[in-house]
Amino acid sequence: MKIQTNDDVTLRDIRQEDITDYIRWETIETEWQLWDAPWLYEGRTPEQCERELKEYIEKLGRWVSEASEYSDSSIRSRFEIDYQGEHVGSCASYLIDGDCNILDGCDTTSLGRAIGICVFDPQYRRHGIATAALTGLIDYLKAHGSQRIFTQTWSGNERMIALAKKLGFKEYRRKDGIRQVRGGVYDGLTFELMR
Ligand SMILES: CC(C)(COP(=O)(O)OP(=O)(O)OC[C@H]1O[C@@H](n2cnc3c(N)ncnc32)[C@H](O)[C@@H]1OP(=O)(O)O)[C@@H](O)C(=O)NCCC(=O)NCCS
Q1: CATH superfamily of the 2-193 domain
Q2: Residue 154 has pLDDT above 80, yes or no
Q3: CA 68 to centroid of ligand 1, rounded, Å
Q4: Which of 46, 56, 62, 188 gets the highest tally of CB atoms within 10 A of its CB?
């Protein structure tokens, strides 16, 4: 299944050949880790990196085999992003609870669905890719019954905050000082889509 969001940006299911890109983004082109939940990556030992990479590759393999079984009507929780035919990122959605924490799997008591995005290679940033991809993802989620849509970041991620506001999100919940990044203390932010 493919969603053509504009002439340049397509959302599609994950494929086997994407795994090579993910290994590169995990091991060589890692700048995005400074911004996308950086607390998960800071201060890891080489052994931890190796173990987490192995687990991640296994998870990607599972996602590829699950995606190969999808029908057009299966509800997707993640998409790969192609820009002019090049694999440049991914976007995904997950359920959050009333306290804005991530919920595993399906839960009828969820507050709603949060969306996230990464354009891994900095050279592809500021080309309107995230705007197009998240607009496509929001339309997809609304068409599949999501009523409340959120996005989450931290107070040091100014690009993501500006992107959220541009898309029509408003701050919904701020958790003071819960994130420590590169020696600084930041707030955890949840935004809700108001349109
Ligand atoms: C945040 C991110 C997804 C934006 O992707 P992008 O494709 O560059 O975004 P777009 O080109 O669609 O820009 C959309 C808006 O984001 C904001 N933005 C993007 N880059 C910005 C920058 N360098 N400075 C300020 N605002 C910026 C602007 O509001 C911009 O709208 P405008 O161009 O009309 O001013 C991208 O920078 C990224 O992947 N960063 C690393 C991973 C990350 O932080 N993910 C979010 C985790 S919560």
Answers
A1: Gcn5-related N-acetyltransferase (GNAT) (3.40.630.30)
A2: yes
A3: 31
A4: 188
